[in-house]
Amino acid sequence: MRKSWVKLGIEEKQKEKGEEEGYMERNVHIDNEWWKIATVYSKEMRKTTRRVENTMKMDREECMLLGGDFNGRIGERGARNWEEEKGDGRRKTKDKVENAEGKRLIEWIEENGWEVLNGNKRGDEEGEVTYVGSRGETVIDYAIVNEAAWERVKEFKVGERVDSDHLPLEITIEGTNQEEKEKGEMREEEKKVIVKVWSEHGVREYRRRLEEATFKEQEIEKMVTELKEVIEKATKKKEVIVRGAKGAGKKNGWWDRECEQAKREVVKALRGWRRNEIDRSRFLEAKRRYRERCREKKKQKREREEKEIKEIRTEREVWKYINRERKKKKPVSEKITIQEWEEYFMRLLEGRKEEGKVGTQRKEKQTVMEETEITAEEMYGTERMVERMVELMNGVWRGEGFPEDWREGVICPIFKKGEKNRAENYRGITLLNTGYKLYASVLSERMKREIEEKGVLPDSQAGFRKGRGTVDNVYILDHLARNELRKKGGRMYALFIDFKAAFDKVDRVKMFECMRERGISEWLVRKVEEIYARTRNKVKVGEKEGEWFETTKGVRQGCPLSPLLFTIYVADVDEMLKKAQAGGVVVGREKVWSLAFADDMVIVAKSEREMKEMMRNLEKYVRKKKLEVNVEKTKMMVFSKRKRKNEESEWKWEESKIERVSEFKYLGYTFNGRATVRAQVREVVRKANKVVGCVWGIGERMWGGEFGRRMMMFESMVESVLMYGAEIWGWKEREEVERVQEKYLRWRAAKFEDRMGGREECRILTECYREKKKNADEKEREKYCRRNGYASEEVERMRAEGRWMCAELSERDRDTDKQERRERIREARYNREYERCVTEDVPVYLGRESTKERKMMARFRCGNEERENKYWMEEEERMCRMCREERETIEHMWRGCGEMREREEKERGEILNEDGREIGWMKEVWKMRERIEKERGGE
Q: Where along the sequence do coiled-coil regions lie (predicted)?
């Protein structure tokens, strides 16, 4: 191992630890980062996890790589899909089996927020088998990393070897290839760039120049040109030198021109004092002002960070913040040429190249436009600037013209997943003109108001509507499934539909027809038609740009109007399903056929026959709308208590087979076929642990030892991930969740349902809430009464006869609690003797002033100081730590241990009495153990 590292120029720590049977650990230095690399051979997973946790003490910032033969099969679990809001959450692998040891392994991995490389990294896309022998072909060898290491692992693959049944795991880490590093260094060339100055001084100058500017033009196109020219003259610029992608200047986020100026003044004062030109007090005063300025800037930076963190509400915002702090990027493949990008997006959007005079004019005009594009910072410079923008938008609204710049968009490819060298595995984000986006936002708000007033959208569509959210649809679907499963033989069929490039497939002519059919006012329809009368795009990847091409299909990506336009486009799907009278599930006084959040759609039915008829009707609808279903990502789930015998139904969309799954992530919530919350709780705990691992390092860099701020960061960001779906599952205590964070669960669930009680935005949601509340109240009441010896009907009868039962039930409830507590103590495998010293009230020793004595008493009374209780240890480990002759118990240490002085015989309950009468003996035991441990260590 050392020879390989020396060859790669990797430093290894001299002091090694953790070498024992089945486990070996090394600490190595790779590219200014310490890596903890360990190999494992597991015979029993519980012992393996304990051994690793006890031995591998590591810093959260450190990269960790753990690999070896774990003798466990995790099946398709362990997928790295936490950034996706939908999907079946399965990892690619050729071994689909999950056994008990594999289950323990994956739960341990998720609990620590780690990742499995097998089937998740480039090089092992199909999840190759790692063991080929007489017992078959399986995956029992895994490579596991923490989040810090994941970013550095470039490739993982299962190698080839014939001298062992176990195939080697080959991992390529970025930065270990010397040639690659040298190439990277060569690419970092210095260049001069012009940047706009937005320091406090720069902003003041910008605003002053704008106040002096005059606006004369009244035609729309000329107004836009004039605005650009005024802004261009008002903006202060400077030339900076950039080396590669590293940029220039301070990166701490608080250092600015004022700090730079204050520093120059200190240096000037220092020189003056040394030359006896000024006295020492003036130098010290300049130094004080400089330090005060820096402290103030740091404080402002911290306050901005705190505010941003506290405002984080969703999981998407959490990962956006984390990825920004880690400077995580998804690079675009350099192997895809700009011509290939153009062809792909032109094919997707049915685009055509501009030709002749128009195309030439656009190219000439574009050179100026890109340099003078109006940004958000520039737009809000002064009141006069805002007023001018309002004038421009009002002119467009009145129909006086439409700026040509607003028709243009720059498409930037963003990698999704899969093979990076295929354009199909990227989605396009369109960068639109800032002024246009403001105009589209105003238009969108007006349209939303009209849509709600006229009831244009069905109740089942929750996407981008006031007072609605993803949790509404999750709540409804969960209730529908649970309600059906309560019935005898109850089942519910759900088809989760994935549209392929939904926004890009919209037929614009049909979209305008839909708007008019749904009752949208003619004026608003014409405003949208004006936007889509002509749209142009070009592709930009890094410094490379393609040519402009016109698009005739789809709604504009990145436009505030687009989600709303798509919901209108498919608003009649519920009417179509209702008219066909097939499928659907009844809740209260409503019937649900489909649920949608923009293009995330699910249809439901109570029987296989009805679902298949719904699918046939939906196929016709999709063809009519010229949309396309992604069959590979569309999944069928059957909610049922148990699988029926000989149930091998085949589900098809047109001629392609649809897969039936037992788990599926819909709108970020993981459903399973039993309609339990177990899958979602497991998923949020896994994600929360992932966030904990990321946030720890960011907090260390940002706040250092300020644990109050770090705790605020932890709670804000972890809570945002952990609380998703708590409205559904937060009523019941979850041990898994409490390990991460105990707060807010019931509060969050109660707050949502209290808010729902007075909501009128969605009738289906209200009916679900009423039914669920009624069922829950009745069930809880029945459970409470039976627990205390009565049936709820009997309690009601007695109350009707005038007998008040509250006091009696409360008294019985207290007695039942005591009995159950005693029963749990008697059945406990750990510390069976605790019953002999337990008290009904708060133990007296907890009133002692000494924290050390309270802790000592608690450990002896609860069995922590006896090795006899620790049944998972080997026999020799359970022996007395002082004499090593008998098992370590309270009785043995009191009278039988040869290292302790003889004492009169006493009962265990008296030795461990709550008043702490034998605290002196306990201290003696601790001191004796410490002395003996030192002596043995010296041997």
A: 203-237, 287-317
Instruction: Yes or no: say if 452 and 444 are a contact pair by the CB < 8 Å rule.
Output: no
Q: How far apart are CA 720 and CA 704, in angstroms?
A: 23
pLDDT digits (tens, 9 = 90+) for 672-711: 888 888 888 888 888 777 777 677 666 666 666 565 666 6
pLDDT (tens digit, 9 = 90+) per residue, 500-548? 888 889 999 999 999 999 999 999 999 999 999 999 999 988 878 888 9
pLDDT at 443: 92
Q: How far apart are the first and last CA of the chain?
A: 33
d(CA 906, CA 914): 15
Alpha-carbon span 844 to 513, nearest angstrom: 79
- Alpha-carbon gap, residue 315 to 665, rounded angstroms: 14
Q: Exposed, middle or buried, 854 (CB in 10 Å: 0-12/13-18/19+)? A: middle
Confidence (pLDDT) at 141: 94
Closest CA to 24 of 41, 3, 39: 39
Sign of CA dihedral 271, 275, 278, 281: positive
Q: Is the model's pLDDT at 176 over the cut of 60?
A: no
Determine the Cα–Cα distance for residues 517 and 590; give it in Å rounded to an integer: 24
Work out the burial of residue 552: count CB atoms within 10 Å of its CB; fewer than 13 is exposed, 13-18 middle, 19 or more buried.
middle
Apex CA 276: angle with CA 272 and CA 278, to 5°? 55
DSSP state of 331: P
In 3D space, the residue among 435, 438, 437, 418 whose CA is nearest the CA of residue 426 turns out to be 418
What tokens appear for 682 in the block? 């497991």
- Domain architecture of the chain: domains with CATH: 2-179 (3.60.10.10), 678-778 (no CATH), 793-827 (no CATH), 832-938 (no CATH)
Burial bucket for residue 570 (CB in 10 Å: 0-12, 13-18, 19+) = buried
| Per-residue buried b or exposed e for 420-433, using 16+ beta carbons within 10 Å of the residue's own CB | beebeebbbebbbb
Question: Which among 680, 623, 645, 657 is positioned nearest to 315, based on CA atoms?
Answer: 680
Strand residue runs (E) in 619-687: 635-640, 651-653, 656-660, 663-666, 669-672
